[in-house]
Amino acid sequence: MSAEDTPTGVLAPCSTCGELPAPGARFCENCGSDVGPATVAAGGPPVLARPPVPALPEPPADLKPTDPPGDPAADPVPPPPVATHRPCTSCGGTVADDGYCEQCGEKAQVERDHWAERPAPWVAGVCDRGIRHARNEDAMALAASGDPATAGRFAALVVCDGVSAAPDSDVASLAAARAARDVLASGGPDGATPVTGDVTERIRAWQALMVAASTTANDAVLVAVGDKAERAEPPSCTFVAAVVDGPLIVAGWVGDSRAYWIPDAGTARQLSVDDSWAHELMAMGTPRHVAENSPQAHAITRWLGPDSTDPAARCAPTVPDSSGWLLVCSDGLWNYCSAADDLADLVRSTEATTGREPRALATELVRWANAQGGRDNITATLARFEALPASATSDNLHTDAVTGDEPATRAL
């Protein structure tokens, strides 16, 4: 959106559900009602406009848009799943079949709207619907064992973000996340085929398992969506995962969900490389703030789903030499804080308030993203990584090598 397209006041809420529509929207993203041509409430503070952006190359035709099409009448927003016969979180009353509390009348929260996982005291994640979307199409699945300060520690963090433009992508993302988690857990110390050897051998083994995890996740999507695979826009999702194995971290991805290494001090790094149109613009020299705010910025070049042509994860291993956080998240978080050092500042300042309990920290990161507008589903998963003694990392290499093809630069 250019500065000229931005209204000069505050958008009026939807008269049907009360949600605030997106700037310039004619239909409510939450309920699909007609909100008219960018009506604004009088007397409100100005809406900040994005800086004008230069002309950019046209994106290629084979991108997958991650936002829904602009005609809700042709593709209405599906209602959230109905939660029945559960206690109301507001008053403790009974939730009726229509999803509302029989006692206080409040709409019940669907379990998929917000949930947390904490497989070990040092690993946790929070997945949230956000504010704008009618349902949560993000998913996560975690596994962990061992003590965070020992060489026997293990964690697997998986996040999948359903493609909003393809209905039922919440089914795809959950199936993918759980299938990938199970494959990665098989290589942990309690798994069926534990990864062993020195750091170099473990890197090779985990890269192979990461590729197996993403392709197995793709197979799980095909099974989960059934005949929906025949749609013109079949259910699809992104994939990002990271494994902690003693001194080692291995990240893998398909799409634009991300893994970050955030040390307690020093320079943070994005471990993954987005498979997106925005990244390809940056590879051609476009500044980050321009690329990430351009049209089709979130169109992805790789994904999981029936129409995926390349579900094999690309991987990046690293052996951190300090303590810090492994963060695996969806774009509902990083949209508001994309650069690694900016996200590190957010994590560190939040940790100063919450302490080093990963579930509390993930909860506050999600809350912060909602406070910025919550325009997408939000998932934040964290593993606390403590630096190990040098004796535990005798093969102490430090690498950011990426397996598979390097990000393609299209001839446009």
From TrEMBL:
<dbReference type="InterPro" id="IPR001932">
    <property type="entry name" value="PPM-type_phosphatase-like_dom"/>
</dbReference>
<feature type="domain" description="PPM-type phosphatase">
    <location>
        <begin position="168"/>
        <end position="385"/>
    </location>
</feature>
<dbReference type="Pfam" id="PF13672">
    <property type="entry name" value="PP2C_2"/>
</dbReference>
<feature type="region of interest" description="Disordered">
    <location>
        <begin position="39"/>
        <end position="86"/>
    </location>
</feature>
<feature type="compositionally biased region" description="Pro residues">
    <location>
        <begin position="48"/>
        <end position="82"/>
    </location>
</feature>
<dbReference type="GO" id="GO:0004722">
    <property type="term" value="F:protein serine/threonine phosphatase activity"/>
</dbReference>
<keyword id="KW-0378">Hydrolase</keyword>
<dbReference type="InterPro" id="IPR036457">
    <property type="entry name" value="PPM-type-like_dom_sf"/>
</dbReference>
<protein>
    <submittedName>
        <fullName>Serine/threonine phosphatase stp</fullName>
        <ecNumber>3.1.3.16</ecNumber>
    </submittedName>
</protein>
